[in-house]
Design a protein that fits this description.
With 201 residues, the protein is an all-alpha fold. The chain is built from five helices and no strands.
């Protein structure tokens, strides 16, 4: 005997953007004080504390937090700043390192138990960063080339190019995270299987 279950549109509603509508943390409190905002503020404190611990009193031979800070700094300088900015790389390291660490901490919030919300998943935060970078880009273009030299039409085209570029970057980043998650899961599985086969060492 075969049973068919019909689901009408009244019974099931696919989730939408309301998933990203958060109530204030404190009932009756400020509307802006939501979970994503609180996590973004916490992320800022973490990034500031990390940079302060790493670079406030640098030693000739790095130790502790300075090690971690220097690894992050060198990674951003060699992989992000120098290939794109060349001789101007060091001038922009403060901004680039801040963006890198901030976005990294935002995303790591998604895997921390009880928090489990990647701040960058809420469009307002990456949009704020993107607009800030775009304003800096336009300012530098006009400052170094003049309004005519920079070209007003480039500004409009730049928004479209930026939109496409950001979509491609975010898609690539999402695919990288998916690959990394699959790799780590398989790696951990292999480690656990090995410990079962060989016993603890």
């Amino acid at each position: 005997m075969r049973t068919t279950i019909l689901i009408t549109s009244d019974e099931f509603k696919a989730p939408g953007t309301e998933l990203f509508d958060f109530d204030p943390i404190i009932p009756g409190g400020p509307e802006w004080l939501t979970k994503p905002t609180l996590l973004a503020l916490l992320s800022s404190i973490v990034v500031i504390a990390l940079c302060w611990g790493a670079f406030a009193k640098p030693r000739l031979v790095p130790r502790d937090w300075q090690n971690l800070g220097e690894y992050a700094y060198v990674f951003v300088r060699e992989q992000v700043a120098k290939p794109n900015l060349g001789k101007d790389a060091d001038r922009w390291m403060g901004l680039l390192l801040t963006i890198f660490l901030t976005v990294l901490v935002w995303n790591l919030m998604g895997v921390i138990p009880f928090i489990q919300f990647p701040v960058a998943a809420h469009i307002d935060f990456p949009l704020g960063l993107a607009i800030s970078v775009y304003v800096v880009k336009v300012y530098l273009g006009v400052k170094h080339h003049g309004v005519r030299g920079y070209g007003l039409t480039v500004l409009g085209a730049g928004i479209g190019v930026l939109g496409v570029a950001m979509t491609m970057v975010m898609t690539a980043f999402e695919m990288f995270i998916q690959f990394l998650q699959a790799f780590l899961f398989a790696l951990l599985a292999a480690m656990f299987i090995a410990s079962g086969l060989k016993g603890s060492h």
